[in-house]
Amino acid sequence: MDDARFNMFGSETATKFFKRFANAGLVVQQSTLPKATQELVSLRASQINGCGWCIDMHTTEALAGGESPVRLNLVAAWRESTVFTEAEQAALALAEEGTRLADAAQGVSDSTWELVRKHYDDEQVAALVCLVALINAANRLAVIVHQKGGSYQPGMFAAALG
């Protein structure tokens, strides 16, 4: 955190915001959307947005949660790999299209939406949509202040909000 432009964890306003933000994230974490899918989606959006802090955090948390290094290494090339389920592929497609809104006039395509609906129930779809929105917001917060990746330890974000 030393190289950041601003210590978001040292500001009372930012800390209050992060506690509320983390509470919103708990809703997704406690949903029936598989934890592995949550980490893969968060990692993919963070890769697209160039957020080193979030890539570090979600890779570290996923590894601590038992995710395989092979799958994490292949998230950026998920279409060219054999290690993701059809449901995970649908979630990753949604993450990409929901993250790249400015790059495509259509936003999330009907074909991606149909795949998501095929593999996830209403509660999981709600969690997935909320997750894509949350991780994109988190990416922007970290990138704006140049929060660098490389020093994250499992549980560090939760501990900082103490």
- Distance between the terminal alpha carbons, to the nearest Å? 17 Å
CATH top level class name: Mainly Alpha
Q: Provide the helix percentage.
A: 55-70%
Q: What is the count of β-strands?
A: 0
Supply the CATH architecture: Up-down Bundle
Overall outline:
globular
Structural class: mainly alpha
Run of helices and strands: HHHHHHHH
Number of domains: 1
Mean pLDDT: 92
Q: How many separate helices? A: 8
Return residue spans where pLDDT drops below 50 for at least 5 consecutive residues.
Answer: none
Features:
single chain, AhpD-like, 0% strand, mainly alpha, 162 residues
What would you say this structure looks like, in words?
- Keywords: Oxidoreductase, Peroxidase.
- This is Alkylhydroperoxidase AhpD family core domain-containing protein.
- InterPro entries: AhpD-like, AhpD_core, CMD-like.
- Pfam families: CMD.
- This protein is mainly alpha-helical and 162 residues long.
- The chain is 65% helix and 0% strand.
- It is built from eight helices and no strands.
- The chain has helices at residues 12-29, 35-49, 52-64, 69-74, 86-99, 110-119, 122-144, 156-161.
- The chain starts with 11 loop residues before the first helix and ends with a helix.
- The mean pLDDT is 92.
